Amino acid sequence: MSYRNLLGIRNLEPSDIATLIQMASSFKERVNRGENTASPTKHVIGLLFFEGSTRTRVSFEQAAHYLGHKVTNFASQGSSMSKGETLKDTIETLRYERLESLVMRHPASGSAHLAARFFGGPIINAGDGQHEHPTQALGDALTISEKKGSLSGLRVAIVGDVLHSRVARSNGWLLSKMGAEVRFVGPRTLLPSNLSLFPGTAHYDLLSGIEGADVIMCLRLQRERMRQGLVGSEGEYRRLYQINSRTIRYAERDCLVMHPGPINRGVELDDIAADGAHSTIRNQIENGIFVRMAAFEWVFGNVPTASSQKSTAKRGKK
Ligand code: NCD
């Protein structure tokens, strides 16, 4: 079987990203019209979540359901990993159990690449440590495109705990590849020291970082990954970096306020920012289903208009 992996955004071509977003958008229309979206090929897919998840896991399950794939959930607790089996041996075991694709979330950066080496079928990275979360970025891109028409030329401020965020990295790569201006905004302690390797500029002051922004993407303070002392106190963080009705005025009047969830309500954003007219948080959740449908079909090679899209991409590059 010929297949692809979806391990990250960094190694995707802009034409791949455009194809995935187009596929997701078309799945959304078809599901909303109540059409049959069954995949031409049926597969048994393993969902391996070694970290907590609500949105990502459920939307992968929903995506598989709309496509007619079968899902097997794997919980590390209660598996042989609790007896000391390694990740590599676990992945190989699932291969010989004849699972055909794995969706994996794991706390170690690079774990999805390891799985891809030993599985022998498509791996979809559902978040590996602080590294990448490609389907989140694709869903966010679909949401922005729906609201703003296109990604190119937009000013996007990614605000908060960039250091620990795979969402920030995948979104940074995707948005810059698609022609947006990316700004990483946050306290010095929460921006990576090697930010020069990232596709965007660093801003330590919130108001200048979000000035004129078309999109503000808030990030959760990831306390579970934090060493002591990276933020003085939650109160100080709120005072200096919270997106609320006062600070949002520095961005464009019609700016979008995004958040991948889960939210620390009242910390990185207040109720007005989270639930008000600028917020796209609910759209992001819904769109997560359709990008994950696109991801499944893309890794299995079921790209309906591949030839026409390839020629469009080639023409676009000239
Ligand atoms: C994010 C994650 O797990 O990386 N959540 C998500 O997938 N929607 C962000 C986070 O945990 O803060």
What does it look like?
The chain is an alpha/beta fold. It has two domains: 14-132 and 287-312, Rossmann fold, CATH 3.40.50.1370; 134-283, Aspartate/ornithine carbamoyltransferase (Rossmann fold, 3-Layer(aba) Sandwich), CATH 3.40.50. Helix content is 40%, strand content 14%. The chain has a five-stranded parallel beta sheet with strand order 7-6-5-8-9. Strands 2-1-3-4 form a four-stranded parallel beta sheet, with helices on both faces. Helix 6 links the parallel strand 5 (155-159) and strand 6 (181-185). Helix 1 packs across helix 5. The longest helix has 19 residues, at 14-32. The two termini are 32 Å apart. Mean pLDDT is 92; it is low at 306-318. The structure holds N-carbamoyl-L-aspartate.
User: Which distinct ligands sit in these coordinates?
Assistant: N-carbamoyl-L-aspartate
Please tally the helical runs, counting DSSP H or I stretches of 4 or more residues: 11
First-residue to last-residue Cα separation: 32 Å
- Average per-residue pLDDT, rounded, comes to 92
Helical amount among residues, as a percent range? Answer: 25-40%
Order of helices and strands: HEHEHEHEHEHEEHEHEHHH
Determine Rg (CA atoms, Å).
Answer: 19 Å
Please name the fourth-level CATH homologous superfamily of the largest domain.
Aspartate/ornithine carbamoyltransferase
Named CATH architecture of the largest domain: 3-Layer(aba) Sandwich
Oligomer: single chain
Structural class: alpha/beta
CATH topology of the largest domain: Rossmann fold
Largest beta sheet: strand ordering: 7-6-5-8-9
- Outline type: globular
- Sheet of most strands: 5 strands, parallel
